[in-house]
Design goal:
Catalytic activity: (2S,6S)-2,6-diaminopimelate = meso-2,6-diaminopimelate
GO molecular function: diaminopimelate epimerase activity
Number of helices: 5
Distance between the termini: 11 Å
Number of strands: 19
Helix content: 10-25%
Strand content: 35-45%
Subcellular location: Cytoplasm
Enzyme class: isomerase
CATH class of the largest domain: Alpha Beta
CATH topology of the largest domain: Diaminopimelate Epimerase, Chain A, domain 1
Keywords: Amino-acid biosynthesis, Cytoplasm, Isomerase, Lysine biosynthesis
Bound molecules: 2,6-diaminopimelic acid
Number of domains: 2
Length: about 290
């Protein structure tokens, strides 16, 4: 019998961020970008990110998680997706803490409730080489990037943070003055970002509350982005606009983010929603399973 027989595709969302989870552990291989798109196409499923689970690569982890964006590109981090993966793993596990592995490293996931999870997203990477940027930049809280007419740019000097994936955050007063559907793709592909970038607009509501809108690399405008929420809190704290803990309100809802002083860890807590499960078509992996 194919190692892919009787496997499921789980459709979930994290605050409206559309997530597919595919558990391929024990199949002996992961899922490639074309296969991810084939899975979604075969089921007529739209997704922002697909989280493909394969066998863990280190002791004590439940799975290695490959994160694929809607455009097939691979992402190093996905906060909303990590919470959805945690829900699928905790279903059959009585523990309250498990570990998953991603390209960004080993993430601790904790159950806070039946539909609420916390993920330790790792320490922020703040050096220009780690974002990465294409040119040496001393101050990553305000980089040399602008959008709009050179004489009077509409937006300029974003902060940049990597959570295992690149984020640029512009702090603005009035969201309605900017069309992120136009600005996002222009800046996602700006040559300053050799690996492209997720582009966010952040509005400081108070010292512990940020409003955020995100244009996601490889996925476009989404209802929420967990790694962007983490990046925005880190950037705001670095610029002394907030403390090291804030509620981040995205179009899809709120995430609670803390940037721990003791170990530099960024911790994200938020809800997940289960939508449905459907059979995975082994035929999509014909060459890999052969
Ligand atoms: N939605 C995800 C972020 C995916 C990031 C992806 N767009 C990239 O970095 O390429 C989240 O909740 O963190």
């Amino acid at each position: 019998m194919s190692p892919l027989a009787n496997r499921l595709v789980t459709k979930m969302n994290g605050l409206g961020n559309e997530i597919l989870v595919v558990d391929l552990r024990g199949a002996g291989f992961g899922v490639s970008a074309p296969e991810a798109r084939a899975i979604a196409r075969s089921k007529g499923l739209a997704f922002d990110q697909l989280m493909a689970l394969s066998d863990p690569r280190s002791e004590g982890a439940e799975a290695y998680v490959t994160i694929l964006n809607a455009d097939g590109s691979e992402a190093g981090a996905c906060g909303n997706g990590a919470r959805c993966v945690a829900w699928t793993l905790f279903r059959d596990d009585a523990r309250d803490e498990i570990f998953i592995e991603t390209a960004a490293g080993r993430l601790a996931c904790r159950r806070l409730g039946e539909w609420r999870f916390e993920v330790e997203m790792g320490a922020p990477r703040l050096a220009w080489t780690d974002i990465p940027l294409a040119k040496p930049t001393e101050d990553t809280t305000a980089i040399d990037l602008a959008f709009g007419p050179s004489g009077a740019p509409l937006l300029q000097k974003p902060a940049v943070v990597s959570m295992g994936n690149p984020h640029a955050i512009f702090f603005v007063e009035d969201f309605d003055a900017y069309d992120l559907a136009v600005i996002g793709p222009a800046l996602e592909h700006d040559p300053i970002f050799p690996e492209r970038a997720n582009i966010s607009l952040a509005r400081i509501v108070s010292r512990d509350h940020i409003e955020l809108k995100v244009w996601e690399r490889g996925a476009g405008l989404t209802r929420a982005c967990g790694s962007a929420a983490c990046a925005a809190l880190v950037a705001a704290a670095r610029k002394n606009l907030t403390g090291r803990r804030a509620t981040v309100s995205l179009p899809g809802g709120d995430l609670d983010i803390v940037w721990r002083e003791s170990d530099d860890m960024v911790v994200m807590a938020g809800p997940v929603e289960f939508e449905f499960e459907t059979e995975l078509d082994p035929g999509l992996f014909a060459d890999a399973a052969a």
